[in-house]
User: Fold this.
Amino acid sequence: MNGDFLATLRRVNGERLAAWCEGGPLPDATFHAMELGGEVGEVLNVVKKLEREAKGWRGSRATVADLTEELGDVLICLDKLAALYGIDLAAAAAAKFNATSDKVGLPHRLSAAAEGFPAGAMYRSGHDGTGPDPSQFFCEAVSDAPECRRVRTVAGTEAQARAQAAARLREGDE
Ligand SMILES: [Mg+2]
Assistant:
């Protein structure tokens, strides 16, 4: 799966939802959150049945194909909830993944592109030791194409600083 797939999912998911509601009111956040919770519950139920199978206990069974189907449902519903708030799931996941790696001191990072930076951009981020507020975080990012650009942002969280830097570099591409 890649960012292009998520972009396509966002578009077609929204088009289908509008058609599904046949011009009526669209579902609100509570509905989408309940729908997502329901699909996560279906995943848990399938996993329970797979464990039952593995242990040889009595009861109904499920297959990995069933789990695949339910995990697909979770992504579809997750996208609909995120869309309501204009959240880019690829960027959100990459930002959170990288922030967690920073927090626990592991080197694993998802790409800058996945966080919404232009292709080929690089960044570094961390505590802002130069500003008046030491609790702030900075992000410095550079992009080489079409011209060399450098931006520096400061925000209350590292993820926010990165998101703002990515947005400013993207603005330069437009
Ligand atoms: Mg389902």
